[in-house]
Design a protein that fits this description.
This protein has 298 residues and is α/β, with parallel strands linked by helices. It folds into 2 domains: 82 residues, Winged helix-like DNA-binding domain superfamily/Winged helix DNA-binding domain (Arc Repressor Mutant, subunit A), CATH 1.10.10; 210 residues, D-Maltodextrin-Binding Protein, domain 2. Strands 3, 4, 5, 6, 7, 10, 11 and 12 form an 8-stranded mixed sheet that branches. It has a two-stranded antiparallel sheet with strand order 1-2. Helix 1 packs across helix 4, helix 2 crosses helix 3 and helix 5 crosses helix 8. GO terms for molecular function: DNA-binding transcription factor activity; sequence-specific DNA binding. This is Transcriptional regulator, LysR family, putative.
């Protein structure tokens, strides 16, 4: 018979497919995961995973075990959400998941203001482009540049995010056509279009010379040299050493949403975050859509 910690470990190995990634999310070392997995399989006297070049895939028996672990996780999350959702105090903790750019240039300011108003509230802000799962209660509130489509979620649109083209201010006398190239995207190639750039291709003979894995890194690289970058205006308009070329682009464009699980929409801590971010987005509309006159070249 396995305990919850053992089910939890198997679930993470199955979910991420590799020991290092599972260890990272479990906040233990890979050697600990190796050791505990070996002990579990010895205890069960069956292999739970097939190994193939570092990739772990559940065996037929493993699939059943992982499915049981998922049900246990979901039930635990349901109870946690119900208890949290019923809480009507403005003390305790609330966890927000958002992106690096949004956390730095929008969320941070308004979270700190909210904290000064509600001093018994402990606020965790997780800045990562990997989205935490609200259904599994990995976070209480998500602030993301996309709508999360699920009947289990409740959300509000905060703003429209506009993008523009930027160059280093020291290149003020250069036309965009004279720039060497745009900075490309070094992360997941499936996300390149969302980030308004070209994905890295080691076999490409044309295209960008430089690639960045994050928007903040792209802005920093753009400010240093002769390469242009497409950036959300909330970042490009305030980054030191950048100037906008032309107005807001027709694409990419996105909507900023704040979302929680439907069970938690009436929780006072969650409502405090919603109220602070809705009010903050109204005040910061020019940050998301650019200043007045942004449709004109600068």
């Amino acid at each position: 018979m396995l305990d919850w910690d053992e089910y939890h470990l198997l679930l993470h190995v199955a979910r991420f497919g590799r020991i290092p990634e599972a260890a990272h999310h479990l906040k233990v070392t890979p050697s600990t995961v190796f050791r505990r997995l070996a002990a579990i399989e010895s205890k069960l006297n069956i292999p739970v995973f097939q190994r193939d070049g570092g990739q772990y895939t559940p065996t037929e028996e493993g699939v059943a075990i992982v499915h049981a672990a998922e049900k246990m996780e979901q039930e635990t999350a349901n109870v946690a959400r119900h208890l949290f959702g019923e809480s009507q105090t403005l003390s305790g903790s609330v966890k927000i998941t958002t992106s690096e750019v949004l956390s730095s240039f929008f969320v941070a300011r308004h979270v700190m203001a909210m904290g000064r108003e509600h001093q018994n509230l402990k606020v965790q802000v997780v800045s990562d482009d990997t989205m935490l799962d609200l259904s599994r209660h990995e976070a209480d509130v998500a602030i993301r540049p996309k709508r999360l489509c699920s009947d289990a979620l409740f959300g509000r649109k905060l703003a429209t995010i506009r993008w523009a083209t930027y160059v280093a201010d020291k290149n003020r006398h250069h036309d965009i056509d004279q720039m060497h190239a745009f900075i490309g995207h070094a992360g997941d190639p499936r996300l390149a279009a969302n980030f308004g750039s070209t994905a890295f291709d080691p076999n490409a003979t044309e295209g960008p010379q430089f690639f960045a894995s994050s928007l903040i890194l792209r802005a920093a690289m753009c400010a240093q040299g002769d390469h242009a970058a497409t950036l959300p205006m909330i970042l490009g308009e305030v980054w030191p050493g950048l100037r906008r070329v032309g107005g807001a682009l027709e694409a990419p464009i996105g909507d900023l949403w704040i979302v929680c699980h439907h069970d938690m929409r009436r929780n006072r801590r969650v409502r405090a975050v919603f109220d602070a971010m809705i009010e903050g987005a109204r005040a910061d509309m020019a940050l998301f859509e650019g200043p007045k006159g942004a449709d004109q070249a600068t």
